[in-house]
Amino acid sequence: MTRSILFVCLGNICRSPSAEAVTRAKALARDLPLELDSAGTGAWHVGEPPYGAMQVCAAKRGYDLAPLRARQVTAQDFERFDLIVAMDADNLRNLQDLAPNSARAKLALFTDFAPQTGADHVPDPYYTRDFDGTLDLVEICADALLDQL
Ligand code: 4NP
């Protein structure tokens, strides 16, 4: 049974904190008790809150990213979480490289839960600047993931 999920992107300031907050809201609405967190494969933004434009866009949909702080993925995460969900294929490859032999977490690509979207990754709005497009996809993937738990 999946009780804990870690969402992972590169910086942990745009995609994965959004995935965490959106999935938390949707899990709450479904009365599903889940432990949720997010982290980045990179360390550039450790300790920082989510990116300003991402926070503003998420807040308009009722998702509060403000309390979140960026952190880097650790080896312990592979013991602590049932499922680690990557935002793109680079993140997934980095996770596979980091995974200790004792890892119990399953690894997955967020978009694989929602094949109907045709997306094979969650685009990084830090570069695309399409924060709403990323949130649209994150909302669909979060619902699809919860449907499949
Ligand atoms: P994220 O976006 O992986 O969705 O948090 C990024 C934010 C910052 C950087 C890379 C990706 N950066 O290199 O600073």
Short descriptors:
149 residues; four-stranded parallel beta sheet; Rossmann fold; alpha/beta; binds 4-nitrophenyl phosphate; 40% helix; 4 strands
Order of helices and strands: EHEHHEHEHH
CATH class: Alpha Beta
Q: How many strand elements?
A: 4
Strand percentage, roughly?
Answer: 5-15%
Hetero groups bound? 4-nitrophenyl phosphate
- Provide the CATH topology: Rossmann fold
Low-pLDDT parts are none
The CATH fourth-level homologous superfamily:
Response regulator
Biggest sheet layout: 4 strands, parallel
Structural class, from helix and strand content? alpha/beta
Calculate Rg over CA atoms.
Answer: 14 Å
CATH architecture tag: 3-Layer(aba) Sandwich
Report strand order across the widest sheet.
2-1-3-4
Helicity range of the residues? 25-40%
Shape: globular
What do these coordinates show?
By secondary structure, the protein is of the alpha/beta class. It has one domain (4-147): Rossmann fold (3-Layer(aba) Sandwich), CATH 3.40.50. Helices cover 40% and strands 13% of the residues. It is globular and about 40 Å long. It starts with a strand and ends with a helix. The model has no long low-confidence stretch (mean pLDDT 98).
What topology emerges from the helices and strands here?
Blueprint: E1 4-9, H1 15-29, E2 35-40, H2 52-60, H3 77-80, E3 83-86, H4 89-98, E4 106-109, H5 125-128, H6 131-147
Parallel strand pairs: 1-2, 1-3, 3-4
Helix pairs in contact: 1-6
The structure holds 4-nitrophenyl phosphate.
